């Protein structure tokens, strides 16, 4: 496990297979944790949050994969933060029920909602039912959730973007097609949870990727 700064005001806590992001002063004077890694990462995550930040004020869960919400009970028990989760992510609520965890979100967000701290929710269904990206509109920073991975996750050169592997998607076709939702917004930094972040022209690189897909009938702009 390691802690490092990504951009001003945003750190990452890196575990073996996934990372979480910590937003300091978002909203002003508060600490926001985005996702909580796996359950087995929970104790170390709590210890690190306490040592590095003195705790957290809010947790935002992006979607229902175990690697993004597994440590939630540890964080909730330790800090009792405000909890924001996607309202329509049945996979997430089913997992919590299976684990006998009765966490009701303080904020059950939907596509287009703006969370405190000027964080806009952009949902990209396909990886899961309501996989959500988070746009820090004041800074043009997009946090991918699992809408996109760094290209080096798939053994390609870093600095580019790919959708999650088909193996991990509920509907791979939708996971790619719905990436057009992201192009409606402006962002010049894209932070991912798997692979390397993209700091140079991420929106143009995403646009180029989508245009060059072999199945161009998927492109909404060709309809």
Please outline what is shown here:
This protein is α/β, with parallel strands linked by helices. 22% of the residues lie in helices and 24% in strands.
Summarize the structure in words:
β1 and β2 form a beta hairpin. The chain has a 7-stranded mixed sheet, covered by helices on one side. The longest helix has 12 residues, at 42-53. The model has no long low-confidence stretch (mean pLDDT 93). The termini are far apart. It is built from 6 helices and 14 strands. It has 223 residues and is α/β, with parallel strands linked by helices. It comes from Haloarcula salina.
Features:
223 residues; alpha/beta; five-stranded mixed beta sheet; 6 helices; globular
Q: How is this fold's topology laid out?
A:
Elements: E1 2-7, E2 10-14, E3 19-24, E4 31-34, H1 42-53, E5 58-60, H2 66-69, H3 72-79, E6 82-86, H4 90-98, E7 107-109, E8 114-115, E9 119-123, E10 132-136, E11 141-143, E12 149-150, E13 161-162, H5 172-177, E14 189-191, H6 202-211
Parallel strand pairs: 4-5, 5-6, 6-7, 11-14
Antiparallel strand pairs: 1-2, 2-3, 3-4, 8-9, 9-10, 10-11, 12-13
């Amino acid at each position: 496990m390691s802690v490092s700064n990504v951009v001003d005001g945003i750190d990452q806590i890196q575990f073996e297979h996934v990372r979480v992001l910590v937003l300091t002063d978002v909203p002003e004077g508060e600490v926001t944790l985005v996702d909580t890694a796996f359950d087995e990462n929970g104790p170390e995550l709590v210890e690190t949050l306490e040592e590095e930040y003195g705790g957290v004020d809010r947790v935002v869960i992006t979607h229902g994969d175990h690697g993004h919400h597994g440590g939630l009970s540890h964080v909730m028990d330790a800090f009792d933060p405000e909890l924001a989760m996607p309202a329509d992510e049945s996979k997430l609520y089913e997992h919590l029920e299976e684990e006998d965890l009765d966490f009701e979100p303080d904020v059950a967000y939907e596509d287009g909602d703006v969370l405190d701290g000027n964080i806009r929710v952009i949902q990209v269904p396909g990886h899961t039912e309501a996989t959500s990206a988070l746009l820090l509109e004041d800074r043009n920073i997009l946090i991918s959730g699992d809408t996109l991975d760094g290209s080096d996750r798939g053994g390609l050169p870093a600095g580019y973007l790919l959708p999650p592997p088909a193996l991990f998607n509920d509907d791979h076709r939708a996971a790619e097609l719905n990436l057009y939702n992201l192009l409606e917004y402006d962002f010049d930094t894209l932070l991912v949870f798997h692979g390397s972040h993209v700091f140079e022209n991420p929106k143009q690189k995403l646009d180029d990727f989508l245009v060059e897909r072999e199945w161009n009938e998927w492109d909404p702009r060709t309809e």
